[in-house]
């Protein structure tokens, strides 16, 4: 324990009499040391003086330009507003208020600031409004907020409610510890409205001693909206929209030209109510004399660098004044005991606490996310860690950064307090070394990463929260409930990629959306040129919508990391193209639902389609001169309906597994190339020729119909299939050919491992060039099947006959119910 005993000069002996015992009448208040404080002077004579009744509170006088007599030309000076500050009840709020009152920086001083808001909470008010608010803005155009380096810890107490005549800290709706320079005077009793259930309560830190009638007069002024809108009485004061919706003005004419459509003129300096001068007075000293004072210091709480009380606080006494000197690079709590002894040797003592501890808060230097957040985003952020306590913060801290969801109104508590399991961690930095004096800051430059995932609903709003907590015992924080801070903006999480603008949240150009699937694969979506895509996620499957692309835009999806890199493991449900896209390149993507292209596309490449599903293709704008091409891996239980000519369909296989017949319909198809089996009806409605029809396996349980020529057909086999060119059924005569069209060549090549390759199937055309048949099964058919034509240039069946230049009606190669029939 450090003990310091100092005394006055020797006191003359008193006359012999019975002296009253020395008693502590005005206990000294505990001190919470604010940022940047280096010491304090305390008048000890107040301890024993029965005439001192003001509790040592600072007195502040505010002089305004409020016109006390608006009926007389000119501004008639009104009385000042005299305020008693509650130094012992809300010490941080008082220290904060005084720092703006005494600041040497004219831009950060209350002198010249205006009452920018008077507000009615809806309660009955004789004064006209419930609060008058100031301390925020210097009046100029554009208006500017005075600098606010730190937020103040909320010192609300139910013992000191917001009754009429009190002055309290203003703050934002983002949390209880968001007060800075702004304050308000209660002109009515707002106890219930501004209590602890409203954003933690609003801390009262003083009361009006004189001039409450001036505050009442300001509260009765007419208000105007100068918050950035246009027309009427809403001419803007600057970019601070929302700050001047209830601006009180005196002696102001909003419509000097009697034209309501003309914007109101900007107010003059005499129209706004501003603080013209401010002064503070120290509490009156005590009158007690003849007392000798000594002081004892004892450590209550100390950090590892502190061994003695003198390492935290130095103390000297001059006369009846105790001088406290807060040591640099120190933090802790000291009990200070002051002893007083009078000439009769009567003594008394009082103990108070000096709390010299750090208080860490965090914020951002700038907004790291430009308003829009996309899964997989990585941004570099300057995290500012500030110390709003009086003690030195030395040691290690853990810093965590979160995205916290907020409701539409942007003020719910879930957006300002970390909720583990609910908020999304985007940065975790353990054991960060800091060395920060009270009132100072340090900056950590860190990369923040939005998780590679999709939120279930796009367009959700989030705030960025920062949580700073000590990771060892070196830092003993004074407050534990304000380690969470946030940036100044609300961000919208969009499951979107490409180039897009979100109202109120900004524009992103060529954004790539990265997300992580349940199996760990990281998927990237992008779109070149213009346009954007939106992914909707129901927790298991993803839907894709693309809007406003340019004709040359390319939509891509690919796996960029994970176990299936290079494989086919992007699971999508539905894809919708609202405008034409030149290319859809998703060779690793699987689809299980519907693919819709309102204006068609140039090329579509995907992996596996597993239905039941449908591809719909609208009419490609003729100015583009493009016919769609489709390339897939395995396709099962999927159909295609197209209003545009299809240039090419290519797949490893196209099969049916669910008992429902698949179909592919289009005005025409240029080429079909299926490596395996094809099990889908194919219908073409125009006279444009089918170039190549290639199926490496079976064309099975399906029918192709066309009103156009067919150049080349090569199938591994036909199994209960029909190939009708110019007719819709097996013809009995030439009259059954509605149109005269030809097949240039038709080859049934055989399917490896299959005993038969031509099973109960029909091929018909008015003219067929060359026919090659392998693997005929003549028995598996209840009715006639085979080839029917008006003319055949050549015919060759493996293991059977060959013919050439057939034109006369006849049946050839009769084998069971199979035949080559010339009608």
What's the structural blueprint in terms of helices and strands?
Blueprint: E1 2-5, E2 31-32, E3 39-43, E4 59-64, E5 81-85, H1 91-102, E6 117-119, E7 131-134, E8 137-138, E9 144-145, E10 166-169, E11 183-186, E12 204-210, H2 212-219, E13 222-224, E14 247-249, E15 275-281, E16 291-302, E17 313-318, E18 321-326, E19 332-342, E20 347-356, E21 360-364, E22 372-373, E23 378-387, E24 393-406, E25 424-436, E26 441-449, E27 460-470, E28 484-486, E29 491-493, E30 496-502, E31 506-511, E32 513-516, E33 522-527, E34 532-537, E35 542-547, E36 554-561, E37 570-577, E38 581-586, E39 589-591, E40 594-597, E41 601-606, E42 609-617, E43 629-631, E44 634-642, E45 646-651, E46 653-655, E47 662-666, E48 669-674, E49 680-684, E50 690-700, E51 703-706, E52 710-719, E53 722-725, E54 742-748, E55 758-759, E56 762-773, E57 776-777, E58 785-797, E59 802-806, E60 810-815, E61 818-822
Parallel strand pairs: 2-20, 22-29, 35-37, 36-38, 37-39, 37-40, 38-41, 40-42, 41-43, 42-44, 43-45, 44-46, 44-47, 45-48, 47-49, 48-50, 49-51, 50-52, 51-53, 52-54, 52-55, 53-56, 54-56, 55-57, 56-58, 58-61
Antiparallel strand pairs: 1-16, 3-18, 4-5, 4-15, 5-12, 6-7, 7-11, 8-9, 10-11, 10-12, 13-14, 16-19, 17-18, 19-20, 21-23, 23-26, 24-25, 24-27, 27-28, 27-29, 30-31, 30-34, 32-33, 33-36, 34-35, 58-59, 60-61
